Amino acid sequence: MRKERIQAFELLQKVRSEKPVVHHLTNWVTIYDCANIVKVLGASPIMAHAPEEVAQMSGIANALVLNIGTLTVEFVESMKLAAKSANQKGIPVVLDVCGAGATALRDESSLALIDQCRIDVIKGNASEVARIAGENVRTKGVDASRVEADLEIVAQRLAQARRCAVVITGKEDIISDGTKTFLVRNGHPLMGSIVGTGCMATSAIATFCAVEKDLGLACCAGLVVFEVAAECAAKKAKGPGTFKELLYDCLYALDRKTLESSQRVYRAP
Amino acid sequence: MRKERIQAFELLQKVRSEKPVVHHLTNWVTIYDCANIVKVLGASPIMAHAPEEVAQMSGIANALVLNIGTLTVEFVESMKLAAKSANQKGIPVVLDVCGAGATALRDESSLALIDQCRIDVIKGNASEVARIAGENVRTKGVDASRVEADLEIVAQRLAQARRCAVVITGKEDIISDGTKTFLVRNGHPLMGSIVGTGCMATSAIATFCAVEKDLGLACCAGLVVFEVAAECAAKKAKGPGTFKELLYDCLYALDRKTLESSQRVYRAP
Amino acid sequence: MRKERIQAFELLQKVRSEKPVVHHLTNWVTIYDCANIVKVLGASPIMAHAPEEVAQMSGIANALVLNIGTLTVEFVESMKLAAKSANQKGIPVVLDVCGAGATALRDESSLALIDQCRIDVIKGNASEVARIAGENVRTKGVDASRVEADLEIVAQRLAQARRCAVVITGKEDIISDGTKTFLVRNGHPLMGSIVGTGCMATSAIATFCAVEKDLGLACCAGLVVFEVAAECAAKKAKGPGTFKELLYDCLYALDRKTLESSQRVYRAP
Q: What are the C-alpha distances in Å from A125 to residues A66, A71, A111?
């Protein structure tokens, strides 16, 4: 496996200068942090879910996030309206299959979104993505459980089957666009000690997809930027509470030297 | 333009001693921060939106906040019920026209609230308020875009037309009650680096309107107190994450000397 | 009144090793903090409210939290479905009667939940619990008002009448299982300066109820752990903003020595 030098800082600079609008239909738990991570990256978040306005909002956005964390049947219908508008405009749609595997509603809703709309990035932890890919795994809540299948293969096959990029987050993140598969080996254990880092990673990914058409590269860059900031924050933090605040400080101040000396992206053979 | 010495600290002391109840129907993104800013000011927030109880809640409140950040059609109906109860009781109603100009639903809902209920304060950024005032502007998300019209005139005319106070936030804030127009030149650029400071300012304004009948003065005082606290926080902050936590610390500890030496309120000619 | 040595640290260790899943139907104001307190305790939060999935979610959980802070009629129906599933599985159900006394909807919904489902812990401040117990008191918002009745008696009688544990939080917390009544004298005034500590306490209680069948003991342990962490945070905090972040840091790092030297639990005669 060889180390890959991706232009993550150049893409971060593009986010900061172009300030893309990232429309979210997301969960009520981490909605603030989803919006704030986009803002601190230098971009512009919109959170709106009313069926009467989602299509219009996606029409003024540069990327769309769908996160099913606290879904309802009606909320998923709004997601479909937003996604169809995004598809028509040609902006990337990122789906976080949060909690897939835990209930039938989550599985069915995720698959309905993937079947009825063009989804450009499917993102989740190992058990969530494996469930969407048709693997037989058990989910305990929204935390990753051990998945027997080779996750790189799962990601690559799902990417090929759905013609999208697939991101499986974990101790090391797997990103596949069906052709190329990357591993991101950044981040810090404190990320798993608080609620919301998974959702924030999704919003970061969408923000980078808004400025870069190569979605595999955009997903890698979004994850690397977020996780290198987390590493910086962990160095200064005294625990999970201060870690979270410092994560915003570090992301806001992230410079080329820090990012390029810390990023650990690998290309799978 | 002459500097105005407003009794902001006296009003803050009144908030701290009377502890008014501020009922909110607000958005799901910043709902915690809206409640917490009221609490840290020394007052008592209530967040409740069920149509079955909003009238009763407004009936025990001293001010009402309506913020359309994540509106739905049903939510706006609850807002009308709450506003009518507030009107009947005679407590001030503050409307944040968050995102007006971005979708038809936001424009129509804002105007329906203003037409069907007595709104005492209309608050937004330049493009949002200009849209409500009938100016022709474009909104990119909820961030202010350049508005050609003279904003002081926009605020004054809207205040006269709707017989309410109007607040246009921005690098300098404009407050008009139709007769008097003020500028507040406090605040710090870090306020624009995080999500929620606009909503928090609205909740601060409503808290001051709960204890002061001169709404122009109350709006100025709420903004000045919030923004001077932000200036204190910015001095100590290491970025947007620590800034937000320190904003609460500084607001909680804000004393007469700091406030009076820092407040920059001007009376427009 | 004699001091009681409860095995709070042993239960905290049990939470950290067993990592119970705590399913919440809670309010939109503090939903992040409810989830995060569970996470930082070392357990696993799930927030889900769709009627189509709540029963299935409670079926994979180890405890259920019902918090009516921003209730709607439909949301309470989802709570009933979740509670019935929890009852069937035999996991503890903790009800925070947030805002009871403020509106008819809150009173009726709380009583409907208690009547139609098995509730294992009823928790609120003095005026909220007194209202549920049938005492005649007034609530100003969700803050405690002075209640004339002897609160220990109120707690004990309600516990006996409803065959559950009752927790009344305040400057000193009262916990009764109908037979034994305890007082917890930990905590810090800064807890009352921010929004959310009441809800977080409820989620902490539920987390401990997930690993300990003696519900009176579990409630005491949850409160003691949360409030000793708050005491540690208050020592280092510079105000309510930094207090909240440090609360997470201190809870995450809480060790046997600190907890055992600080816990102040008393047994009522």
A: 15, 18, 16
What are the structure tokens assigned to C17, written together? 């090793």
Q: Assess contact for C263 and C223: CB atoms under 8 A.
A: no
Enter the DSSP assignment of C65. Answer: E
Return the bridge partners of B123, or none.
Answer: B96, B167
ipTM over 0.90: yes
B102:A52 CB<8 A: no
- In the predicted model, what is the mean pLDDT of chain B? 95
B chain contacts of residue C142, beta-carbon cutoff 8 Å: 44, 46
Nearest CA in chain C to A197: C36
Domains of chain A as residue ranges with CATH: 2-267 (3.40.1190.20)
Instruction: Name the residue of chain C whose CA is nearest to A193's CA.
Output: C40
Quickly state the pLDDT bin for C135 (edges 50, 70, 90): confident
* C196 contacts on B by Cβ (under 8 Å): 32, 36
The pLDDT tens digits of the residues spanning C78-102 come to 999 999 999 999 999 999 999 999 9
Q: A182: which strand partners? A: A175, A267
Q: Is the pLDDT of residue A30 over 90?
A: yes
CA atoms of C87 and B157, how far apart (whole Å): 60
* Helical (H) or strand (E) element with C64: strand C63-67
Q: How many CB atoms lie within 10 A of CB A26?
A: 30
pTM: 0.96
Q: Show residues of chain C in contact with A98, CB under 8 Å.
A: none
| pLDDT for the residue numbered A1 | 80
